[in-house]
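task queued by scheduler; priority normal; single chain, no ligands, no partner chains; default sampling; output format set to structure tokens
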Amino acid sequence: MPRKAGGALRRTSPGFLVLVCFLLLLRPAGCGGLPEKTAPAPPPGQSSPLQKQAASDDTAPPDLIPATVAEVIDGDTVRVRLPGRRTQKVRFIGVDTPETRHPKTGEEPYGRAAAAFTKKSLLGRRVWLERDVQERDRYGRLLAYVWLEPPTGASASEVREKMFNARLLLEGYAQVLTVPPNVRYADLFVKFQREAREAKKGLWGGRHLHS
């Protein structure tokens, strides 16, 4: 007569079952438990989600480009000499100074003063260029935030003290010009412009510019 499949289980010693459970209890998950899941480590050079979440305004901008200002074209445009002796025309991101030689509008009020301020501040000086999403504008100019010295972070105080784009706004030589997707410091720039307007600095002190 054929044996039933369950016969082997009925003959299993109770002591054997106790031993099996005891061995399973020695595993980290316990008897019958599931192993604990852990997030895989990120690939080399890539931050984990928690590391990205922990990043703050104290993180210095990456990939700054050292350059020397060789020529000032107007208040918000210069020509710089990059490593390798190459020269590039650079348009400051997020700000707009009055024109000095526009083909349609000609010279605008306060344009000459803004250009003189930029020339006095930057000509012949070593600066550090920070790019945003777009590398160039439709005229082929390099788009950049211009740092007067390498920042140790990207906080409001660092931008206020070390970035020339911000200085143009704070001294009243420029207005905010936000062109998406290059909006990294747009909120700060609006704040700086408001400060200059309230203090009636620069172009905000005259009657030639409407609010």
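post-processing summary
- Residues 1-12, 27-56 have pLDDT under 50 and may be disordered.
- Residues 81 and 87 are 4 Å apart (CA to CA).
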